[in-house]
Design a protein that fits this description.
The complex is a heterotrimer. By secondary structure, chain A is of the alpha+beta class. Chain B has 2 domains: about 240 residues, Aminopeptidase; about 90 residues, Beta Barrel (Elongation Factor Tu (Ef-tu), domain 3). In chain B, the strands form 3 sheets. In chain B, strands 1-2-12-3-13-16-14-15 form an 8-stranded mixed β-sheet, with helices on both faces. The radius of gyration of chain B is 21 Å and the shape is globular. The chains are: A alpha+beta, B alpha+beta, C alpha+beta.
Chain lengths: ~325, ~350, ~325
Amino acid sequence: MKNLIRKLTEVFGPSGLEDEIRRVIKREITGYVSSVKKDPLGNLIAHIKGKGKRIMLAAHMDEIGVVTSFIDKNGFIRFSNVGGFFPIHSLTARILFENGVVGVIGEERRKSMTDPIEMRKLYIDIGAKNRKEAEKLVPVGTFGSYQREFKDLGKRVVAKALDDRIGCAVLVEVIKKLKVKPKFDTYIVFTVQEEVGLKGATTSAFGVDPELAIAVDVTRTGDTPEASKMAVKLGGGAAIKVKDRGIVCSPAIVKKLKNVALKHKIPYQLEILERGTTDATSIQLTKGGVPSGAVSIPSRYIHSSSEMVDINDVEACIKLILKFLKTDFT
Amino acid sequence: MDDLKTLLKKLSEATGVSAMEKDVKDIVKEELAKLKIPFKEDLVGNIVALKKGSRGAGKVMLASHIDEIGLMVTFLDENILRFTTVGGIDERILPGQEVIVYGKRPLKGVIGSIPPHFVSKEKQNKVLSTEELFIDVGLSAKELKRNVETGNFVGLRKNFQELMNERYSGKSLDNRVSVLSLLLLFDELKRINHNWDVYSAFTVQEEITGLGAVSSSYNIQPDVGIAVDVGFGKQSNFPSEYTVELDKGPAIAIGPNLHPGLESSIVQIAKDYEVPYQIVAAPGVTGTDACDIQISRQGIPTILVSIPLLYMHTPCEVVMLKDVKRTARLLSLFISHLSSDMFKGDKYAT
Amino acid sequence: MLLEKLSNLDGASGDEAEVRNFIKGKVKNYVTNIEVDPFGNLICFKKGRKKSPIIIIDAHMDEVGFMITGKRQDGTLTFSKVGGINTSVVIAKTLRIGRKKIRGVVGIKPVHLLEKEERKKVPTLKELYIDVGAKSDKELKDIEIGDFAYFDTDFERLSNNVIKGKAFDDRVGCSLLIDIARKEFNFPLYTVFSTQEEIGLRGARVIGNRINADYAIILEGTGAGDFPSRKENARVPFLGKGPTLTVMDRSMIADRELLEIIINIAKREKISYQLKQPGIGGTDAGRIQVSQRGVKCSVIAVPARYIHSPVSLMNTKDYRDTFKLVMAVLRHLGRGR
């Protein structure tokens, strides 16, 4: 499991440039599914034939990142955010560009230590001597994302892009471990461009046209010092989403997930996320409406280069989804 | 039909927070059954009723949302509950507000407030955020754990109240008063001949995502859409742009979200039949089901009819039943006159 | 239940008649003498066998409320507060006005139409008005300027021990007093139902001048602090932890001797009690204590959450424990030094 997580998180893939991660995932799941397709936006759609309602499970392949917007005469690069790239997590972090160049994020001089951190005051330093040299390596419009290696802490792991490569890992494992025919006609979609507006989910759901859907993504926790009061904690089990900023999950799906967890003694917790949302939100509003829910992996430090999850929570999510797929749903 | 006041009281006092609309749906289903109008509940929970026209000349879909704004339990904090909002609750109304928590059983409670003795004068003027507020149902921490969990829905609690001049006050009159007008409409349609098939979608989750309007218009594919919602009533002390008056009839909205040909047609009908009506300016998207209906599939000519309502999104909203009756009357007349001439050809550019 | 009826009655500072009449009816068969003074204080005297000690037990009849200050042309009413109320709890509530109890709502501008900064501010009372559904001031004949208005809250039982209603401060004191008045004592006892406590302990200012008391015990409903949002050290008192004793508040320091007697009796009778956080609030004791040559005073209160708002919560076990404690203290004091 940990090797898979390391493999998936260390791949480069900000929103819009998911080719490499899609290839890696495709290699993992080929042979385990009835068919694998790619749609016009780049979503990877795997199909496991089964009788019963058509279900869509979704995890997004893209990570947050940056795109270069301007190079000054000294070779320092200004940039824009791709998705929820928060300045506060980025100071002195390393950025890996699509062509392999690495840079460091620096900040203009601050007048006072307590000044807020603003995107427009940041720049990327690739060590170039001047504009000409920088432009050759990283022209305007080049995409980049955090560069940070995966670390195994024992019960927990730390990596960049656990949002949502951990969701992808969960679904890859579900695919591999599903030995019997599921009670659903199952589509597992690895979506693109979630971080910039749930784009991949919108189009793939239109194509798959499911009767119900479950997204698999990360969620915050309330268990760090002076955190917002939230019921989710690392090690508390699979988080069953009740509500987030964009969706109130179908109560029927929430109830079913709870029952499956209770029946099979899978540790679970109930999640309400005040800030943030997932693919479930756009899938729900597709065509004639799709009852949707989500299974979330609790995570600390989301959208930083050191996100952290608990392996037991990950295993619980995998088990919960597997058992759900094997349970009748009316 | 039950007398309107009784029915409105039932609708207002029932809890139907977005995604938990069952109690209100039960009332609607009961009334539709009494009216002998067939209905179905669709995949996402909308109730869609259909009264066929004499010729099936076209399909008109009315939409009125049955959900209300509410709260949800996020965290059990010792002996009180932390919560978040479901839909656009006006946070100013929360301190001291009675609520009902739908845990293992319905639990009556109140949103706590700190007495003035404990609060400095400067702090008293600031609106407390939901993070600073909490719900108290009078149970101990242990009892709370046994009865309530994260994710439980919470509804606001308010008695329906009669004021002077046949004005009524209560919670969730946005949008129960429109639900009532659609039920009354079906009653009116029994006495008037209409060629078009009339669909009434009692939509879910308008207050949070518009899911009900998106899904029902996609499924029904009507030729004309009519959203029925509430409009800002003219209040004392408040500039009158974008507001309409109580007791002056339904408001027809004009703006990019609404089809000009349909809009001028319904205004003409109101004039011809002398049904009191008002015009209200809607410069952007209206923030109602009309938003989602207009962009369904390849586009649906849509209008918005609003019932004037005071103090929107507070538990003391105020309406007049007369305006409900006028709305149902105008809609029935409009429906009986519907023709595709109203929205084809040059009428788009009116 | 006596407290249920008392909670549902309307009586703000200066408008206590409804409450006074109800209480008079409940105690008249149990007391020697009833007097109503120029302030409206209801002073009931129970003659005892002995001539001393002379003890006052006091509770105030008034609750916080509102007063109609103006009728506008468009039929809306302007109003002000009577007593200390946080404006934030007035918004969107229903009030009942005047003798005829006409219902009106305190509406506000729809949040959708406000600027961002406006949404963060609690409207001031000047910006609020009451809407009774009138279309013009011509329809407001049944309402007068000067009429009082009240939160339209219904008393309810929430669970075995927890009740909800308005005005537990201080109808709980009044209820205890009525229960006490119905008992027999061998010393002169004055059960005093005071007025206008909420606007500055007004009625109490004259009570001490009318009665030469040795002791005065004030029964109150006091603000409980037992919710997690308060800091650890500011949490008291708790619902369910019994009668609350004042060591010091903003109106007085409790008589140490009397306070010790009360605490010792509580311990002896195994009645759980708690101490109120010092320095907060004030009661009639503050005025009675400094009347004439001085009176030894103490305050015993029942904790209630969210006092001075439309909806308070209380634990009935605290009521029973407080009654037990006060009765035991009275018996003890009655036996003399």
